[in-house]
Amino acid sequence: MRLEKRTAIVTGAGRNVGEAIARLFVAEGARVAVVDVNETRAQGVVNSINAERAGAATAIKCDVTSNAEVERMVAQVVEHWECVDILVNNVGVVDHKTILDLDEAEWDRVIAISLKSVFLCAKHVARHMVERGQDGRIINIASTSGHRGRADSTAYPSAKGGVLNLTRSLAVQLAPFHIRVNSITPHRVRTEVDPGESPRSQKVTNLIGRQCAPEDVARAALFLASGDADFLTGSDLLVDGGVLAG
Predict the structure, then answer these.
(1) Is 193 helix (H, G, I), strand (E, B) or coil?
(2) Which residues touch 47 (CB under 8 Å, ≥6 apart)?
(3) What span, in angstroms and rounded, lies between the C-alpha atoms of 19 and 217?
(4) Is the dihedral of CA 186, 192, 197, 200 positive or negative?
(5) How far apart are CA 174 and CA 128, in angstroms?
(6) Whole-angstrom distance, CA of residue 163 vs CA of residue 182
(7) Across the strands, what pairs with 32?
């Protein structure tokens, strides 16, 4: 098992990519804190995981845009399992408006969820890792939207561009403490949404010829979390089906 005796926090793990990452990490031996703002979703994932491997997962309700809640969440994981070895910042939300139509409130919401949350979670987890004198892994989920402009979105590509450069900055700052920080860039992942939410495009535009699945991103996260990626930090792993190749 590639993550045996490791403890991971995965945000937005109540469904879709976060859930796939949590399940794969547990299958590889990790203990996982399933963090989500929706406690019912998080607990459902944990119940399913623990039915197969008792005690491998715990559900934590957390608004990752709140410094106080993130600090409490990390402390709760440390109290429960004594350490945090891996953090996956997966939470994100998309806007579908141009600069002419996007209002300040939606801009603030998208930036807070998709970028500020990465800063807050990374800060509190990194502080814990440094205090313990342990090595660690931080993995940030970016997007092809962070690599190029979009005609139909403003705040989201801005946030994901920020995630990419925040990843590089954290890699530089945390290297002396043996904490490796990398990102993953997926493209149009197949997702489930709640009623009233905007579904992501199902159109396939990549070189592979099929839509990205949550499990594709999960396998990339497992690689970056494992010892196989010991020489990688400040890197962005493209899981985009070749979209950015041209």
Answers:
(1) coil
(2) none
(3) 11
(4) positive
(5) 12
(6) 10
(7) 8, 57
| Given 126, 156, 186, 222, the catalytic residue | 156
- Contact between residue 25 and residue 86 where contact means Cβ atoms under 8 Å apart: yes
Q: Which two tokens stand for residue 23?
A: 């399940």
**Lookup: tokens for 56:** 């491998």
Strand ranges in 5-61 using DSSP code E only, listed in sequence order? 7-11, 31-36, 57-61
Residues 242, 192, 108, 59: is their CA dihedral positive or negative?
Answer: negative
Please give the model's pTM, rounded to 2 decimal places: 0.96
Phi-psi region of 218 (alpha: psi -120 to 50; beta: other; left: phi over 0): alpha
Is residue 115 part of the annotated active site? The answer reads no
How many whole angstroms separate alpha carbon 99 and alpha carbon 83? 43
Range list of β-strands (E), the chain: 7-11, 31-36, 57-61, 86-89, 136-141, 179-186, 236-239
Partner residues linked to 137 by β-bridges = 86, 180
Contact (CB, 8 A) for 178 and 241: no
Q: What is the pLDDT along the chain (246 residues), one digit of tens a residue?
A: 999 999 999 999 999 999 999 999 999 999 999 999 999 999 999 999 999 999 999 999 999 999 999 999 999 999 999 999 999 999 999 999 999 999 999 999 999 999 999 999 999 999 999 999 999 999 999 999 999 999 999 999 999 999 999 999 999 999 999 999 999 999 999 887 665 555 555 678 899 999 999 999 999 999 999 999 999 999 999 999 999 998
Q: Residue 51 has which token pair? A: 């039915």
The 8-class DSSP code of residue 134 comes to: -
Q: How far apart are CA 175 and CA 212, in angstroms?
A: 31
